[in-house]
Amino acid sequence: MAGHDDVYALLPSGYTLLFGANPQEAADLAAIAYRVSSLSLIPVANAMDGFTTSHMLCEMLLPEPALLAEYLGDPAGRIKAPTPAQEMLYGAKGRVYQLNQYLLRHQRDITVENWQKLHNLLEHDAALIEQDQEGVVNPDAGLVASAVARSVAAAVAKCV
Fold first, then answer.
1. 32, 81, 120, 131: which could form a disulfide with 86 (CB 3.0–4.6 Å)?
2. How far is it, in rounded angstroms, from Cα 47 to Cα 53?
3. What phi and psi, each to the nearest 5 degrees, are found at residue 122?
């Protein structure tokens, strides 16, 4: 396994592996890897030969920024669960669920009083925390949601 041990180490991990044979393929596969990972919610590694491909002299075409924006979507946007099964696993939104799971995992690390405060904050402000920026009638609501998310993160950091 000389030379690609790092790539072979990923084989049992569940990653999807894409391997570019030349600089053009490596560049093209970067966008494909991002999109596949976003849609499948499975990590994708975009690999290439560390010496041969990286030192190869050849012309290549990079995709236009507009094409990448159309193909990949807004980087600030939320990744939607593409199938009902994934929605059941991860939730249609999921921020509050993920934060609650974090609190449960670290319950022993947080005092009972602080844990209860954080749990109550998540419960009280769930709608604001879950809210997306897009489609918000009141533009200040998105800022409130961001502020609530920041305050939750700060509260968790203080309590842990």
1. 81
2. 10
3. -60, -40
Euclidean distance between CA atoms 105 and 79, whole angstroms: 24
Give the integer Cα–Cα distance in Å for 26 and 33.
10
Q: Which two tokens stand for residue 79?
A: 């990744």
Structure tokens at 102: 């974090």
Q: How far apart are CA 68 and CA 65, in angstroms?
A: 5
Q: Is the pTM of this model over 0.70?
A: no
Q: What is the pLDDT of residues 50-87, one digit of tens each?
A: 777 777 788 889 989 889 888 887 665 556 666 666 66
Gap between the Cα atoms of 42 and 36, Å rounded: 8
The DSSP bridge pattern shows strands 44-48 and 16-20 to be: parallel
Q: What is the largest CA-CA distance in the chain?
A: 62
